[in-house]
């Protein structure tokens, strides 16, 4: 530890001492003052008792001498005798006695008084001690005294007490400081030093761990870019069913590995406190439905029912981090689908307490033993951690989800019964955007000034049936629900429906043939006849409302065009062409596989593609010919992508050229890497593995601006060529025939 660090550590010790002193000194003063006051009162009481006893003894002694004097007289006693006054004068030797007088009790006359002359003048407020002198006649001797001595004692005791307190505080403070420095200060400074060293070691270890994870992520993503990219390209070719199955398995395995890598990176960022949350408006209904559509192929492969339900009174637009909320829902819903072998998984959203919204994921899976419930949220833990467990995974998804929920100010709880399913409940303080209104916004299905349309909802799953009914009732429909068509027919015989909405599992039920109906299934559109419609599960709310409105109005769309989620392998729809037509692209990557992949991605796109093998080559090629779009790898030997971008931007500024759109294409996907790319002058960021669909979406969004920029460059080049031609003509005019 350096000298500076040691100096810094003295401040906490002094501060702790001052805090302890601030507590100890008032306590010491309270107890010391109480003790001294008690002692002072005791001393005063003893002083008063001693003074009273002294004055009483003196009075009794003189009174006895006067009695003996009176006994010696044969007649009347001569109280004015010098002997009497001398006896009384001896009492004035006591500083507390002011005067002594002899009086006749019958007449009240003064027989003798000392001090002579002054007598007892001014002693009206003094204390008096009477003493009867047994003589003939009886005489009363009165001793008058005051408490000047007691006041002096009080003053001396007060000064002494203050001196003791001041000295005690000083001695106690010094002793406390010395003892604190020796007993507490040194061990405390040593402890703080060890804690500081431990903190530095922990920070270094945390930074090393983050760097290691980032490095490993980069090293894994780089080959994964080739594996997944080539698998996507292979999926665009003509394959047999068996080959297509192999390719799909490769892609899903690659996606699973990327999910694991992302979870590990997120977990590391949360532990390091470097994860920040966005506050942006998003549509909650669209987000929930997107999650169900994303996971629908997995549910279809396992023949599970998977659906979502957002209560109609839930606001449509919220403020929050949509990306992290989507990550939480995908983790939990995907986990539910993984552990559910039969039945259904439901994703529902409802309003909770004031300012709170509850998102629940319920499944009919294997459930969790009661003693293992808390383990599901532990990092790298699963309910079954044995080598022969039935379900795979790292055990990070739920741990990351709970930590993200906590960062968002919410809670994530779980209830489960082994063998009966599990329910994960997320409570979040989402902020509705008041400007967008509250609840589901759609035109009511009932006609103006007309009766409410009667709709029958037939579904074997009560939760989904209730969600569909709530949505339709919100749109002013009269809804009758049941899981048994026969029971619904019997109960609603007097209210014939205008539309029947039924699940595919009940498609063969005997229903009114003249009533239009909409079939919900996971398969393609069946032959439903003129009165039939079809919705693919899981059903989007907008498609449901559109289909119901069309059926009620007699304008139902072609059933084959109503779908809820895309095919599980979009590549099988065929390779898209012409998506980068007329755009000059410079792709920079030091990895030959990645360059080959980019070349295949742009095949048939219409782009003018050039490839560079490193940063030096990229700078050279951009100098030789302009590029509208530069896909720049970051980690390259010799000159990395940041340096190459800086040189390209410097040349563009020096020559007055229009800047190219530079995109970082890198396996370093942490937030600091995105910030570094922005600081280096890059305009965009794409992480590896780079999917062709993501590249196409990014380029298509920029294509109009890139093409316009190229057209302007070409116009400027033509103007420059014309100016050069005119200048040459003026310099060398053409010769005439005569010449």
UniProtKB/TrEMBL annotation:
EC number in record: 2.7.13.3
Organism, as annotated: Roseovarius marisflavi
Name used for this protein in its record: Sensory/regulatory protein RpfC
Residue ranges annotated for the Histidine kinase domain, each copy included: 215-432
Subunit comment: At low DSF concentrations, interacts with RpfF.
Chemical reaction(s) catalysed: ATP + protein L-histidine = ADP + protein N-phospho-L-histidine
Acidic residues bias locations: 712-726
EC class: transferase
Keyword Transferase applies: yes
GO molecular function list: ATP binding; phosphorelay sensor kinase activity
Keyword Membrane: yes
In-chain residues carrying the UniProt-annotated modification 4-aspartylphosphate: 503, 633
Positions of the Response regulatory domain: 454-552, 584-703
């Amino acid at each position: 530890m350096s000298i500076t660090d040691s100096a810094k550590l003295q401040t906490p010790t002094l501060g702790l001492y001052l805090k302890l002193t601030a507590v100890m000194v008032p306590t010491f003063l309270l107890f010391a003052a109480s003790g001294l006051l008690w002692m002072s009162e005791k001393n005063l009481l003893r002083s008063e008792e001693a003074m009273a006893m002294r004055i009483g003894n003196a009075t009794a002694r003189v009174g006895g001498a006067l009695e003996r004097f009176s006994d010696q007289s044969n007649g009347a006693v001569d109280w004015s005798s010098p002997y009497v006054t001398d006896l009384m004068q001896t009492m004035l030797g006591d500083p507390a006695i002011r005067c002594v007088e002899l009086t006749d009790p019958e007449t009240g006359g003064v027989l003798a008084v000392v001090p002579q002359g002054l007598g007892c003048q001014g002693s009206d407020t003094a204390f008096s001690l009477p003493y009867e002198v047994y003589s003939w006649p009886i005489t009363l001797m009165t001793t008058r005294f005051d408490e000047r001595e007691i006041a002096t004692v009080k003053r001396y005791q007060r000064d002494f007490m203050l001196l003791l307190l001041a000295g005690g505080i000083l001695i106690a403070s010094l002793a406390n400081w010395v003892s604190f420095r020796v007993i507490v200060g040194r061990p405390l400074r040593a402890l703080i030093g060890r804690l500081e060293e431990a903190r530095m070691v922990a920070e270094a270890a945390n930074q090393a761990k983050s760097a290691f994870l980032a490095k490993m992520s980069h090293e894994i993503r780089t080959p994964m870019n080739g594996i997944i990219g080539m698998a996507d390209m292979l999926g665009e070719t003509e394959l047999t069913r068996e080959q297509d199955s192999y390719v799909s398995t490769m892609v899903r395995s690659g996606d699973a590995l990327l999910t694991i890598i992302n979870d590990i990176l997120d977990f590391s960022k949360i532990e390091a406190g470097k994860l920040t949350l966005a506050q942006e408006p998003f549509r909650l209904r669209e987000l929930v439905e997107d999650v169900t559509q994303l996971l629908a192929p997995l549910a279809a492969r396992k023949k599970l029912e998977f659906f979502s339900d957002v209560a109609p009174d839930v606001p449509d637009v919220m403020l929050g981090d949509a990306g992290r909320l989507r990550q939480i829902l995908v983790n939990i819903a995907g986990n539910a689908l993984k552990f559910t072998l039969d039945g259904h998984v439901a994703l529902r959203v409802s309003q909770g307490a004031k300012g709170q919204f509850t998102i629940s994921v319920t499944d009919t899976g294997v459930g969790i033993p009661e003693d293992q419930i808390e383990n599901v949220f532990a990092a790298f833990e699963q309910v079954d951690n044995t080598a022969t467990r039935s379900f795979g995974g790292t055990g990070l998804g739920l741990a990351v989800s709970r930590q993200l929920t906590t960062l968002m100010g919410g809670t994530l709880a779980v209830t489960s019964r082994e063998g009966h399913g599990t329910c994960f409940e997320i409570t979040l303080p989402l902020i509705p955007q008041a400007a967008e209104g509250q609840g589901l916004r759609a035109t009511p299905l009932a006609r103006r000034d007309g009766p409410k349309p009667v709709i029958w909802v037939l579904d074997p799953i009560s939760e989904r049936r209730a969600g569909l009914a709530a949505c339709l009732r919100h749109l002013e429909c009269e809804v009758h629900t049941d899981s048994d068509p026969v029971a619904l027919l019997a109960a609603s015989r007097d209210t014939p429906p205008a539309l029947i909405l039924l699940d595919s599992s009940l498609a063969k039920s005997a229903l009114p043939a003249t009533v239009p109906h909409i079939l919900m299934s996971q398969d393609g559109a069946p032959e439903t006849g003129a009165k039939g419609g079809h919705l693919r599960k899981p059903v989007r709310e907008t498609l449901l409302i559109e289909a119901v409105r069309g059926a009620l109005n007699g304008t139902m769309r072609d059933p084959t065009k109503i779908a809820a989620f895309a095919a599980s392998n979009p590549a099988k729809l065929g390779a898209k062409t012409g998506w980068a037509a007329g755009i000059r692209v410079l792709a920079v990557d030091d990895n030959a596989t990645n360059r080959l992949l980019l070349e295949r991605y742009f095949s048939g796109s219409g782009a003018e593609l050039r490839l560079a093998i490193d940063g030096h080559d990229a700078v050279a090629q951009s100098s030789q010919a302009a590029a509208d779009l530069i896909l720049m790898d970051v980690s390259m030997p010799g000159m990395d992508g940041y340096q190459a971008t800086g040189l390209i931007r410097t040349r563009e500024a020096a020559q007055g050229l229009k800047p190219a759109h530079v995109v970082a294409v890198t396996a370093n996907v942490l937030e600091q890497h995105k910030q570094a790319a922005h600081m280096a002058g890059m305009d965009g960021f794409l992480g590896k593995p780079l999917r062709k669909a993501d590249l196409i979406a990014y380029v298509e969004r920029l294509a109009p601006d890139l093409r316009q920029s190229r057209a302007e460059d070409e116009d400027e080049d033509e103007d420059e060529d014309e100016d050069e031609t005119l200048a040459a003509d003026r310099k060398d005019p053409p010769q005439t025939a005569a010449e």
